[in-house]
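Revision sheet: structure tokens.
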Amino acid sequence: MDDAQALELIPRTRTDDLLTWCATDGREVAERPLRIVLTLLELTGCRLRDGWPEVSAKELDQLLYELLPLTADAEGDGHQAYLDALAAVLDHQRAAKRLNAKRHARLREELEALGAGFPLVMRLPGRLTWPRLYAMLLHADGVDTTDAGAVRAWLDAFRQRGEDGRAAAWAGLPQLVVAEEEHGRPQAWDRTRLITLGMSTENARLLLGNRLLERVYRSLSALVAAGQSLPPELGHDVERYGELVADEAVRLLGEWTVPGLPALLRADYADLAPEPGQAELDGYLTAADRA
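Predicted:
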């Protein structure tokens, strides 16, 4: 590993190689979910051999029930596309003789069991982030999410609906699973739910940023263990490097939902996706304690 690779934030996954293997094997796997899955697996610290992840049941659970619901949407490719991607990873490992038949069968059974609940987890309001919620709305309205101008125009129009109109739009999303008494009720999108959304969004950004940094640290540790010196870039502007990590986390969250959307929601459209500050959280918790 050279210095440049050690400081790379985004893993160089073997997505293209795996897509080629899938084509040869006669199976169709969507590229975007596969790239997301391979990237997240490496960011979890999954053991790699020649760039291929060696997946455990723990990592399947973490990916499907924690990381994907926080970071990626299923609007374009569907929930099954992520399960197909994980199945391809496991089957390729078996074909490459990196998994014996018994362990492969056990992991496939685990994937099937976890996969049964995965669509539900992705549809729970409590697991949403602002980028995922707005991705749902944009897709529902047929907006070309690859067109930055169209996304901005939609956000401008959505802002004009006002708080009540926006709450009605959120409550009207058919793919969300909510309690029967809440279905279609804008009142369900109250201050508590908005604060939860803001907290989840911040958590997603921090989690991804931390995982990116952890990956860099693992790479640097490997350099040191190999007797190499640390890259000189680390001695120049560490603070700026931290900013790059934060920016890259936001960019990735956009790539995995709607390109550029998380950055827009943090800047020009922050009023549409509020994230509570500490003072607001303290006030909310105090009020909750009184209640």
